[in-house]
Amino acid sequence: MKSPGIEHLNNSFSFQSGNHRLYFKTGKGDIPVVEIQNEQASASISLQGAHVLSWIPVGEDEVIWVSDAATFTQGKSLRGGIPICWPWFGAHENNVAYPAHGFARTSLWQVIHTQPLPTGETQITFKLETSQLDQDMQAMWPHSTVAEYRLTIGKTLTLELTTFNHSDQSITIGQALHTYFSVDDVTNTTVYGLEGKDYLDKPDSFKRKTQTGPITFNTEVDRVYVQTPDDIIIDNKQRKIIIKKQGSQSTVVWNPWQQVAEKMGDLGKDGYLKMLCVESANAAEDTISIKAGNSYKLLVIYTVEGV
Ligand code: TA6
Cα(220) to centroid of ligand 1, in Å? Predict the structure, then answer.
């Protein structure tokens, strides 16, 4: 889909009242970006992938990590932020030539609504309609499906991804909000909430294992924790990030560690020490079946607490 142009976006959706402001600009790689400022936070979201690039609650440091070496290219994924993996997670089940994590993160999303809320937060809603994608993508996903993504930006960040099945058959989706959290030092970071849960260990041929105790980081971690709908806490000594979720059965935890990061080439120097992905997902055995005419919502709320 073609970008509607910054002027048109600003005419249709920008607003400013006092310190509350939302406007569009051309970002890196000529990709439109929406900038949001209110009394509780600021945020920046790329229209390609409806990809959150920054969220800074007032008085806090940046919560979202974007690699120094990230490349911003139309139609290509970007290292960092909050990529939306949809309508499948990881490699496609039947065709490895299809893009990993689906096509939502590399597609241009439409802005359909913006609103200053009486709470002082800002709301913006994006939409991706598969019937408007190019032929190649429609061939990969021949089901009439719409994704709506509503973000509420304030002291907390609320992300709601709703999938509408407009086709006349059931569909099965995999999905993740593949959030790269900014951490001071991943070796000083602990993830709580997955103790005793089963996970599929990607670096060990997806073997099923059980988590003992909280998760700490001193090697590559690339795991899909299944049947994990409960809250997660990332504690990196400087602060805690609390992840509350609904409609997310899986949690993916990923840090590539040094060797894999070097091969990937876009994590920047020692970038792997500064990031941690904790992804609210429906993946592996937790994919979601949506009947014809029905919808499914994944809801995630992030809060930051200083310690
Ligand atoms: O969510 C974890 C993961 O699937 C890892 O296996 C790792 O490859 C990562 O995502 C990044 O994927 P990407 O396609 O963005 O390079």
Answer: 12
